[in-house]
Write a structure and sequence with these properties.
The structure is a single chain. The longest helix has 14 residues. The protein has one domain: Vaccinia Virus protein VP39 (Rossmann fold). With about 270 residues, it is an alpha/beta fold. It is globular.
Length: about 270
């Protein structure tokens, strides 16, 4: 898409939106004062890594394009709390001080900042995005707010570049449906989770025509489960009190031993 189209898409993602909420964008946070140095962004992506061509569909679902960084003001629009009840979403995560959390597809940090406050100084937030421009905006915002427990990380379409077995919660808010390589990303996310760690997906409800979002940016619970369960995730719980979104909590299932089918304690009797 051309840059001008990106701007329109970013600010008017909810075309067909009732009212003017989709257009109520706020100005991105200003650059920090000279004495506030933004944190370094981890840009150490392997330039030799091969990334397969992006898929257009996955398991019958059309994959949405990633929101362009020129639409970043829409992410911090004044109306977002009223429309999505973001505080309730955060409370439902039950984050504890000292945890390690990943804000996957963090953009310019709408949720990153709040997650950092909840894990506290002994905790850590990995803020992952595939657009360095988004991460630079986030870094300036972190400096402005004096937040030091966030690591901005440039991910790729197939790898969020998270440490193995280190993360308690990977949060994807309206992000999973944009993964151009969902199988590869789910495999890497699964590897990054601690024992008992969770992948949490917030997606606009595809079953509900009253949710004023384009169908391309919505998912049903059935579609989410159909995609995540073959990747080794099991649904642990659901939270259904958000105005427009599902909130689904998944845990990684233990890998089956060779020759043992899931749900069986021993290889089936061949006789």
């Amino acid at each position: 898409m051309k840059p001008s189209t990106h701007i329109v898409w970013g600010l008017m993602l909810m075309a067909g939106f009732s009212g003017t909420a989709g257009a109520q964008a706020v100005v991105a946070p200003p650059h920090p004062a000279a004495d506030k140095k933004p944190p370094a962004v981890d840009m150490a992506v392997d330039p030799t890594a091969t990334i397969p061509p992006a898929a257009t569909h996955f398991m019958g679902r059309e994959i949405s394009q990633t929101m362009h960084y020129t639409g970043a003001p829409w992410l911090v629009r004044e109306s977002r709390q009223r429309e999505e009840d973001c505080r309730l979403l955060l409370e439902s995560l039950a984050i504890r001080p000292g945890q390690t959390v990943c804000d996957m597809g963090c953009g310019n940090g709408f949720y990153t900042v709040e997650l950092a406050k909840r894990v506290g100084p002994r905790g850590l937030v990995y803020a992952v995005d595939v657009q360095p421009e988004m991460l630079r905006m986030l870094a300036h915002r972190l400096a402005d707010e004096g937040i030091a427990n966030v690591r901005p990380v440039l991910g790729t379409a197939v790898d969020p570049r998270l440490p193995r077995g280190a993360v308690d919660i990977v949060l994807c808010v309206d992000v999973y449906h944009e993964f151009s390589h969902p199988e590869e990303m789910l495999a890497r996310i699964r590897e990054s989770l601690k024992d008992g760690g969770q992948l949490v997906l917030a997606e606009f409800r595809g079953e509900d025509p009253a949710v004023p979002i384009k169908p391309l940016h919505k998912m049903t619970k059935a579609q989410v489960r159909a995609e995540l369960e073959p990747a080794g995730f099991g649904l642990a719980r659901e939270f259904d009190r958000l105005p427009w979104q599902h909130l689904l909590f998944f845990e990684a299932r233990p890998a089956a031993a060779p020759g043992i089918q899931p749900g069986l304690s021993a290889p089936p009797n061949s006789q």
